[in-house]
Amino acid sequence: MKTMTELRHTDTNAADDSAGRAFGLEGNLYLPVLLAVIGALVLFAILGVLLRINYVAAGGVVAVPLAVVVGWALLLKQGKPAGYDRDLIETLMGGGNFTRESAEQGRLLK
């Protein structure tokens, strides 16, 4: 039987779980960005080739949703805790209280 001094001790950090990285983005965060890029290419082709809209105007139209998705991924999700984006939007729009009653939220903010 081993004594306490003979037991092997190893340091572990259970809180250091990672969902991995792909294309520099954490977890599956690359999927909305990839889908937005593919959607932007399809929309650009539809606007530019099929509808014969000026390429600069088509690029401007396509850039808006693409910028929104990339901005959301990089500014509100990448390196932030889970639910950070929803909490921030809720705080900006409604005060960010834990109550469901809107009258109570206004009273608590003042």
Number of domains: 2
Given the C-alpha coordinates, what overall shape results?
Answer: flat
Terminal Cα separation, in Å? 66 Å
Radius of gyration, in Å, reads 24 Å
Mean pLDDT, nearest integer? 82
- For the largest beta sheet, what order do the strands appear in spatially? 1-2
Helix and strand succession?
EEHHHH
Oligomeric nature of the chains: single chain
Which bin fits the share of residues in helices?
Answer: 55-70%
Distinct helical segment count: 4
Roughly what fraction of the amino acids lie in strands? under 5%
**Sequence stretches where pLDDT stays below 50 over 5 or more residues:** none
What is the β-strand count? 2
Biggest β-sheet strands, sense, barrel: 2 strands, antiparallel
Structural class of the secondary elements?
A: mainly alpha
Overview of the structural elements:
The structure is a single chain. The chain is mainly alpha-helical and 110 residues long. It contains four helices and two strands, in the order E-E-H-H-H-H. It folds into two domains: 57 residues; 29 residues, no CATH class. Helices cover 57% and strands 4% of the residues. A two-stranded antiparallel ribbon has the order 1-2. A hairpin with a 2-residue loop joins strand 1 and strand 2. The protein starts with 20 loop residues before the first strand and ends with a helix. The model has no long low-confidence stretch (mean pLDDT 82).
